């Protein structure tokens, strides 16, 4: 029997492959009325950062890393010889409360390997959330990983206590899932996302029509998912199309991309090394362009260019391929056009739109807005500035190559600094 | 040249500014001097309080300015007071749209100072670490934290901690000011020395275990970590003592991968 410390070590180590640690955008609550502990609802807080650059916002652990399944990419697969442990519900509750009281965390992100059967596992996970909310009146954030095969009733119950639910889509292509995670069922995963989406929509509609009376809560921070990148041969186009379909069909708040991390004793079916972390970064940038900048997936990746360019960010790549639409006049262009200018973020654009009602923008104004001149200058014009035809011509010459470098090409390391 | 005492609070600044404005004194002719540097004669020259001018003020300033002033008054740099008066002067002397355009040098600087304060506030929410104090009584839990904010934000941040930890008794100790909550009311006291704060908590070993294991050595990104958690905060974060060890582990893994 392990000590708590040993179990925590094993079960947090097992959880580190899950990228999400978000704790934003849920309903507001605090403990001012003298009961329980905690507050949530505003912008999530990152209480610490580890040297991998990731934030620590939640206590992210597995209830157990024993698992019936044998997904090849997973450290916790049945055939792995990783040390195993299981925390009791009360132990997780106590850890959460004690960490929370010292202001280490915003709450709990609980996931689990599948033991006995999916419903049993889901019930154990829900028990922890229920104890936190009911026995301790815990008002911090709770994210529960949902077991896709769990029953409809259990999913409803999980949403009652959790702020966020998530089911991992795991891989971009169904065929990869069949190959690498034979016990997982791609259609089943989507069916569960659909169920969560339905419950979420019901909750939202009820809240809208019924401001004053009590509506039972259902995952007010919605659902998210995670896709492993680089464990199969999927292109960025496969990844982004799958993500876009998930956003559209199930109203997901976030799709997390997780560059495949090599695990001990890997199967021969897995790639021998990790994809560059830069690929993961480019995917997040592309995801942002689709969600907040009005781009379509097929503008960012195409049949000819199925992978994102590692040298340039996706917006710059797009601009270089569509150089005819530039330069853009910052004093007159509509918002949608400004959103396509490399180097301009949503915040800067909002400020530009506000300022130009009163004042025509000049070159010297841009640095006051903390806009990188180097980045934007080839693409814009202002009252006192126009890019020379020379600089536009030069851009033509640095058009992104149509072929992305091979994923495991050794020539990549100097560019990415990874691998 | 008019010499006035550097105010300590926003309210004091408002009184001074109101007087200066009433006398139509251009900001270039105002010398803001710390009270300690003023001779008695000078100090007497400082404008007297005039409560009536609050209502009788001819000048109207946008609410946005008052919000800015309130924000920036938490900044540690005392140049904020003269800067605020310059902005106020411009707003009331022919540039009423100054804040809307936001490109004036003083406004840009003010916004940068406010940004720094907001970041500091956010980091305070994140990096305060409570330690349990054993006061011998069985049924009460007491916690205290030591924190060194960059700006004067303790009072401003107290409500956040009250809402979150309303049912706990706690103190946040800092060099500038201390906030104490006893489950009923907030008491602010003067700043203290770090020695006054508890230096350990038994639970920290579990927290360090968690921090060590949630780190993925296969994806070392020190710069990303440091941009969000700058080194200046490390000395008061119990988990930060592990950073060198974990970074080393990540680098060793990197070398192994290069060999493969």
TrEMBL record, chain A:
<dbReference type="Pfam" id="PF04055">
    <property type="entry name" value="Radical_SAM"/>
</dbReference>
<dbReference type="InterPro" id="IPR058240">
    <property type="entry name" value="rSAM_sf"/>
</dbReference>
<dbReference type="InterPro" id="IPR006638">
    <property type="entry name" value="Elp3/MiaA/NifB-like_rSAM"/>
</dbReference>
<dbReference type="InterPro" id="IPR013785">
    <property type="entry name" value="Aldolase_TIM"/>
</dbReference>
<dbReference type="GO" id="GO:0051536">
    <property type="term" value="F:iron-sulfur cluster binding"/>
</dbReference>
<feature type="domain" description="Elp3/MiaA/NifB-like radical SAM core">
    <location>
        <begin position="57"/>
        <end position="286"/>
    </location>
</feature>
<dbReference type="InterPro" id="IPR051675">
    <property type="entry name" value="Endo/Exo/Phosphatase_dom_1"/>
</dbReference>
<protein>
    <submittedName>
        <fullName>DNA modification/repair radical SAM protein</fullName>
    </submittedName>
</protein>
<dbReference type="GO" id="GO:0003824">
    <property type="term" value="F:catalytic activity"/>
</dbReference>
<dbReference type="InterPro" id="IPR010994">
    <property type="entry name" value="RuvA_2-like"/>
</dbReference>
<keyword id="KW-0949">S-adenosyl-L-methionine</keyword>
<dbReference type="GO" id="GO:0046872">
    <property type="term" value="F:metal ion binding"/>
</dbReference>
<keyword id="KW-0411">Iron-sulfur</keyword>
<keyword id="KW-0408">Iron</keyword>
<dbReference type="InterPro" id="IPR023874">
    <property type="entry name" value="DNA_rSAM_put"/>
</dbReference>
<keyword id="KW-0479">Metal-binding</keyword>
<dbReference type="InterPro" id="IPR007197">
    <property type="entry name" value="rSAM"/>
</dbReference>
TrEMBL record, chain B:
<dbReference type="Pfam" id="PF13566">
    <property type="entry name" value="DUF4130"/>
</dbReference>
<dbReference type="InterPro" id="IPR023875">
    <property type="entry name" value="DNA_repair_put"/>
</dbReference>
<feature type="domain" description="DUF4130">
    <location>
        <begin position="79"/>
        <end position="239"/>
    </location>
</feature>
<protein>
    <submittedName>
        <fullName>TIGR03915 family putative DNA repair protein</fullName>
    </submittedName>
</protein>
<dbReference type="InterPro" id="IPR025404">
    <property type="entry name" value="DUF4130"/>
</dbReference>
């Amino acid at each position: 029997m392990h000590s708590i410390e040993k179990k925590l070590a094993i079960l947090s180590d097992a959880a580190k492959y899950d990228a999400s640690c978000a704790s934003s955008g849920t309903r507001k609550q605090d403990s001012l009325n003298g009961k329980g502990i905690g507050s949530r609802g505003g912008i999530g807080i990152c209480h610490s950062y580890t040297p991998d650059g990731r934030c620590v916002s939640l206590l992210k652990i597995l209830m157990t890393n024993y698992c019936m399944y044998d997904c090849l990419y997973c450290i916790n697969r049945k055939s792995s010889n990783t040390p195993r442990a299981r925390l009791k519900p009360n132990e997780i509750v106590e850890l959460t409360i004690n960490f929370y009281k010292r202001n280490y965390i915003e709450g709990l992100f609980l996931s689990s390997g599948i033991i006995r059967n999916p419903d049993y596992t889901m019930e154990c996970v829900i028990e922890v959330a229920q104890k936190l909310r009911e026995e301790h009146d815990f008002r911090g954030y709770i994210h529960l990983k949902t077991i896709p095969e769990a029953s409809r009733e259990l999913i409803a119950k999980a949403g009652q206590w959790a702020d966020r639910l998530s089911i991992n889509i795991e891989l971009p292509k169904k065929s990869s899932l069949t190959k690498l995670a034979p016990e997982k069922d791609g259609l089943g995963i989507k069916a569960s996302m659909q169920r969560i989406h339905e419950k979420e929509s019901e909750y939202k509609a009820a809240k809208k029509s019924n401001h004053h009376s009590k509506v039972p809560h259902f995952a007010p921070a919605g659902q998210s998912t995670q896709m492993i990148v680089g464990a199969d041969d999927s292109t960025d186009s496969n990844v982004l199309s799958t993500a876009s379909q998930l956003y559209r069909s199930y109203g997901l708040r976030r799709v997390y991309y997780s560059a495949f991390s090599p695990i001990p004793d890997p199967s021969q079916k897995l790639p021998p090394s990790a994809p560059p972390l830069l690929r993961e970064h480019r995917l997040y940038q592309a995801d942002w362009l689709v969600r907040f900048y009005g781009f379509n997936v097929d503008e960012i990746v195409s049949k000819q260019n199925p992978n994102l360019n590692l040298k340039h960010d996706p917006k710059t790549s797009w601009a270089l391929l569509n150089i005819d639409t530039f330069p853009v006049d910052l004093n007159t262009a509509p918002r949608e056009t400004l959103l396509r200018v490399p180097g301009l973020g949503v915040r800067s654009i909002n400020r530009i739109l506000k300022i130009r009602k009163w004042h025509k923008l000049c070159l010297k104004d841009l640095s006051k807005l903390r806009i990188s001149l180097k980045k934007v200058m080839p693409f814009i014009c202002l009252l006192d500035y126009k890019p020379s035809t020379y600089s536009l011509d030069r851009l033509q010459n640095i058009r992104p190559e149509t072929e992305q470098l091979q994923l495991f090409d050794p020539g990549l390391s100097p560019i990415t600094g990874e691998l | 040249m008019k010499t006035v005492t550097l105010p300590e609070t926003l309210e004091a600044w408002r009184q001074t500014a109101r007087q200066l404005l009433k006398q139509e004194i251009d900001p270039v002719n105002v010398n803001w001097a710390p009270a300690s540097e003023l001779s008695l004669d000078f100090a007497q020259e400082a404008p007297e309080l005039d409560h009536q001018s609050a209502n009788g003020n001819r000048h109207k300033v946008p609410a946005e300015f008052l919000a800015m002033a309130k924000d920036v008054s938490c900044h540690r740099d005392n140049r904020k007071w003269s800067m605020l008066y310059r902005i106020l002067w411009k707003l009331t002397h022919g540039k009423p749209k100054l804040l809307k355009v936001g490109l004036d040098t003083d406004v840009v600087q003010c916004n940068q100072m406010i940004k720094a304060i907001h970041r500091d506030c956010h980091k305070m929410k994140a990096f305060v670490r409570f330690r349990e104090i054993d006061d011998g009584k069985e049924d009460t839990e007491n916690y205290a934290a030591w924190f060194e904010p960059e700006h004067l934000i303790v009072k401003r941040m107290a409500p956040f901690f009250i809402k979150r930890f309303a049912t706990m008794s706690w103190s946040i100790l800092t060099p500038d000011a201390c906030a104490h909550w006893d489950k009923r009311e907030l008491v602010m006291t003067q700043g203290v020395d770090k020695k006054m704060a508890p230096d350990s908590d038994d639970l920290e070993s579990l927290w360090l275990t968690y921090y060590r294991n949630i780190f993925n050595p296969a994806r070392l990104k020190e710069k990303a970590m440091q941009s969000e958690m700058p080194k200046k905060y490390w000395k008061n974060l119990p988990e930060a003592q592990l950073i060198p060890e974990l970074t080393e582990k990540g680098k060793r893994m990197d070398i192994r991968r290069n060999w493969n």
